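In this section we turn from sequence analysis to structure. A common task in structural bioinformatics is to predict how a protein folds when a small molecule is present, because the ligand can shape the pocket around it. The inputs are simple: the amino acid sequence and a SMILES string for the ligand, here zinc ion. Study the lines below before reading on.
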Amino acid sequence: MPELPEVEAIKLQLGKFLKGHKIIGVEIRNPKYEIPKENIIGGKVIGTRRFGKVSVIDLDNKYSILTHVKLTGQFIYRGPNLPKPKELSKKVVGGVPGPHTLVIFNLDKKGVLYYNDIRRFGWIRVEKTEDVENEKFIKKLGPEPFKDLTLKKFKTLLSKTKRPVKVVIMDQEKMGGVGNIYATDALWLAKINPRQPANDIQPQEQKKLYEAILSVLKEGIKWGGASELAFVTPDGTEGNYQGHTLAYGHTGEPCERCHKARFEKYFLGGRGTYVCPFCQK
Ligand SMILES: [Zn+2]
């Protein structure tokens, strides 16, 4: 599932491409997507925001479009703000518009925003802009790296539970934005065993982990996110972090830091976890 860097890439590109466009029509091709068209048609995009893994498109008519792409949702923009699009990624199965295009936002100046979603777990909602921060899903989100997750808050949330540290840092209600790929890499970078009870981590290690999380998220943002599963950015291309992971996906490869062990994989909380058995004892 997309994590903070992937959704940040979606938010940034949607902001760049949609800003100034007015929505002139909405075509809903799947009844699961109940979008109150009358609240957004005529609205002009003034900006985009991100809360955890939720992207928000703010309109000038006091309404906002909220969306979570979940496993396989994709927004693809075509129009004047992307004059020379690169070839569409093969991850956009069937193209746009195609059999997996569920919603089409028609924009002025010949712009179009397509929403594709093979698994259809993603959602799109419309709320009054003033209500966005009180929306159920957003209100539940914990503090977020680069926003309001201070080192102090991070230490407190670790010290309150004996659940495995990896499970805790991926819990969106404890802290927002970090999923499996970046949690795995941050724990390797901080030399912490993902199974270690969170409240057992010493202050020095807590700080190391906090800094490691910020560091891997920054790398993820730099590479435009990681294109696992179906993740593409709104320009229709893939992110590149998957080619730059530290531990994630490296089963059987030697650890480049210690040169004393090879990466092992096991499941923790149902998610594939990669560790160096020497560095992360
Ligand atoms: Zn190692």
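The longest helix spans residues 203-222. As an exercise, try to locate the residues that line the zinc ion site and compare them with your own expectations.
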